[in-house]
């Protein structure tokens, strides 16, 4: 026999589900998604700013050499990835706020959100991996091939690119967390 408190609690839960009110765990999930997406926008915008403003000129034996992000295809690729991810993060922020917080969101919305998060995660790690490889060679060189380390001469430029790369990796981690949250939300909605 159920106690009056148990009947009252189950009645409240049925009203909550039928009226579209979200549970505390759903609200926490939505808040976490919003925060991670805002962080992704902030990290990518900061990475873009640091990358675009990085540059250094050095004089060696009377010749002036310039180091710019645009001279490296990997850094241009990372900049393009950061720009795309920043724009799509802002759009997904609007999508999450408007569509998924409404009652009765469809399972397809959660699937599209999961798909978006996975694409952004893969895009970020590809840009980060390319820039990391070039940055490693710039900092440490590759003796067997004959490529010398250049960061000893253009340290300011290398350090700014390192900051940009760290910000991009933080964006990757934010999107990895978002993909996990989206997948778990998709699975929980599929079993309801």
UniProtKB/TrEMBL annotation:
Compartments, as annotated in UniProt: Cell membrane
One Pfam family hit: CASP_dom
Casparian strip membrane protein domain mapped to chain residues: 27-174
Transmembrane portions of the chain: 79-100, 112-137, 162-181
Principal subcellular localisation of the protein: membrane
Description of how the protein assembles with itself and partners: Homodimer and heterodimers.
Name the record gives this protein: CASP-like protein
Species in which this protein is naturally found: Juglans regia (English walnut)
């Amino acid at each position: 026999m159920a106690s009056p408190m148990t009947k009252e609690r189950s009645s409240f839960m049925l009203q909550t589900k039928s009226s579209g009110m979200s549970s505390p765990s759903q609200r926490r999930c939505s808040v976490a998604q919003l925060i991670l997406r805002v962080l992704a926008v902030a990290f990518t915008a900061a990475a873009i700013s640091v990358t675009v403003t990085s540059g250094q000129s050095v004089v060696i034996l009377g010749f002036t050499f310039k180091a710019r992000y645009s001279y490296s295809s990997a850094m241009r690729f990372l900049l393009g990835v950061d720009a795309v991810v920043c724009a799509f993060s802002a759009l997904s922020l609007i999508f999450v706020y408007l569509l998924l917080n409404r009652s009765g969101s469809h399972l397809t919305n959660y699937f599209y959100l999961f798909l978006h998060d996975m694409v952004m995660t893969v895009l970020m790690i590809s840009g980060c991996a390319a820039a990391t490889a070039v940055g490693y060679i710039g900092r440490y060189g590759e003796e067997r091939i004959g490529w010398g380390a250049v960061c000893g001469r253009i340290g300011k430029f290398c350090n700014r690119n390192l900051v940009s790369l760290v910000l991009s990796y933080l964006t990757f981690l934010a999107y990895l967390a978002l993909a996990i949250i989206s997948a778990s939300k998709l699975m929980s909605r599929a079993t309801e």
